[in-house]
């Protein structure tokens, strides 16, 4: 008879760390809203793989969706991770994967869609000399939001005047460059001179610093014949100013509302009267 201790299977426990959603956001995030905790991961089951984080995403949508997270749950977000163990032939060891794993160091994943966005993890193309971080940028959610949001909603045409709020961000900067490829007159609106200098360097025709300039007045200078397409990442009074300059049959793609993400409960951004909205 074999000793009892030889019949007991040793269970491998892997320790990892994660950020948990500890307290609802109210205004600007504080250190107490998130906490780092240790977790223990069990052995892999058939069909699972273990991925080690390489890059974590920090995107504006996370703030907007965070109210759906139960307190104590892992902070949401995308990852580029390296597969370090696997019991799934479709996710081999050594390959990199993009998934909705949240803010954690190690993840047990499967091929099933996961996270609030319900997207299945996918492998990074093998053998391509592409920086892995781009899969959370131009090849990820920001780039796809810019490409499809602008081309499918705004439907830019040669010579159109395009205004972009939040132009210095990951989405807005890509929209502006796509608009230039489409031979449009591009106006970028951001909150700093440094961002605007960079926007000029990537081809934007006009730039507006909404913190130091009157946006309505600046738009009259940059778009004397009105705005045909507006890609909105900001909302609020700034977007009201742009909408006042929209031409008949203009197109507006509403991608985000950054102005409202950090307001305290009960606050709402100010809006102007849409006196010319009938032109759209």
Mean pLDDT: 89
Corresponding CATH superfamily of the largest domain: NAD(P)-binding Rossmann-like Domain
Shape: elongated
Strand content bin: 25-35%
Largest sheet: 5 strands, antiparallel
Oligomeric state of the chains present here: single chain
**Helix content, binned percent:** 10-25%
What class would the helix/strand composition place it in?
alpha/beta
CATH architecture field of the largest domain:
3-Layer(aba) Sandwich
Number of strands: 12
Number of domains: 2
Q: What is the CATH topology of the largest domain?
A: Rossmann fold
Low-confidence stretches: 273-280
N-to-C terminal Cα separation, in Å?
84 Å
> C-alpha Rg, in Å?
23 Å
- The total count of helices amounts to 8
List the strand order in the largest sheet: 6-3-4-5-7
Give me the strand/helix succession. Answer: HEEEHEEEEHEHEHEHEHEH
Which CATH first-tier class of the largest domain would you pick? Alpha Beta
Describe the SSE topology.
Elements: H1 4-7, E1 14-21, E2 34-41, E3 49-56, H2 61-65, E4 79-86, E5 96-99, E6 106-109, E7 122-123, H3 141-154, E8 161-165, H4 170-181, E9 185-190, H5 193-201, E10 206-209, H6 215-222, E11 227-232, H7 236-243, E12 246-254, H8 258-261
Parallel strand pairs: 8-9, 8-11, 9-10, 11-12
Antiparallel strand pairs: 1-2, 3-4, 3-6, 4-5, 5-7
Q: Any overview of this molecule?
A:
This protein has 280 residues and is an alpha/beta fold. It folds into two domains: 12-121 and 131-136, Alpha-Beta Complex (Quinone Oxidoreductase, Chain A, domain 1); 141-279, NAD(P)-binding Rossmann-like Domain (Rossmann fold). Helix content is 23%, strand content 26%. The chain has eight helices and twelve strands. The protein has helices at residues 4-7, 61-65, 141-154, 170-181, 193-201, 215-222, 236-243, 258-261; strands at 14-21, 34-41, 49-56, 79-86, 96-99, 106-109, 122-123, 161-165, 185-190, 206-209, 227-232, 246-254. The chain has a five-stranded antiparallel β-sheet with strand order 6-3-4-5-7, with no helix packed on it. It has a five-stranded parallel β-sheet with strand order 10-9-8-11-12, with helices on both faces. Helix 3 (141-154) crosses helix 4. It is elongated, with a radius of gyration of 23 Å. This is 15-oxoprostaglandin 13-reductase. Its EC number is 1.3.1.48. InterPro entries: ADH-like_C, ADH_N_2, GroES-like_sf, MDR_fam, NAD(P)-bd_dom_sf.
């Amino acid at each position: 008879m074999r000793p009892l201790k030889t019949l007991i299977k040793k269970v491998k426990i892997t320790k990892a760390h994660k950020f948990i959603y500890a307290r609802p956001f109210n205004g600007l995030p504080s250190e107490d809203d998130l906490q780092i905790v240790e977790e223990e991961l069990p052995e892999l089951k058939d069909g699972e793989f273990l991925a080690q984080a390489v890059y974590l995403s920090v995107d504006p949508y996370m703030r907007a969706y965070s109210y759906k997270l139960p307190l104590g749950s892992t902070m949401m977000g995308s990852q580029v991770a390296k597969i370090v163990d696997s019991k799934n032939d479709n996710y081999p060891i050594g390959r990199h994967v993009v998934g909705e794993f949240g803010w954690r160091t190690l993840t047990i994943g499967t091929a099933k869609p996961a996270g609030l966005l319900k997207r299945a993890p996918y492998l990074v193309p093998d053998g391509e000399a592409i920086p892995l971080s781009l899969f959370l940028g131009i090849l990820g959610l920001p780039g796809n939001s810019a490409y499809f949001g602008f081309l499918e909603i705004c439907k830019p045409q040669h010579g159109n005047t395009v205004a972009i709020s939040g132009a210095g961000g990951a989405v807005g900067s890509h929209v502006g460059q796509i608009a230039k490829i489409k031979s449009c007159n591009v106006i970028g609106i951001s909150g700093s001179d440094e961002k605007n200098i960079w926007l000029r360097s990537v081809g934007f025709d006009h730039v507006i610093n909404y913190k130091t300039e009157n946006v309505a007045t600046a738009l009259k200078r940059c778009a004397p014949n009105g705005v045909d397409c507006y890609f909105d990442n900001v909302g609020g009074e700034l977007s009201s100013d742009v909408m006042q300059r929209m031409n008949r049959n203009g197109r507006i793609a509403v991608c985000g509302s950054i102005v409202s993400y950090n307001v305290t409960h009960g606050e709402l951004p100010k809006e102007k009267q849409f006196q010319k909205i009938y032109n759209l």
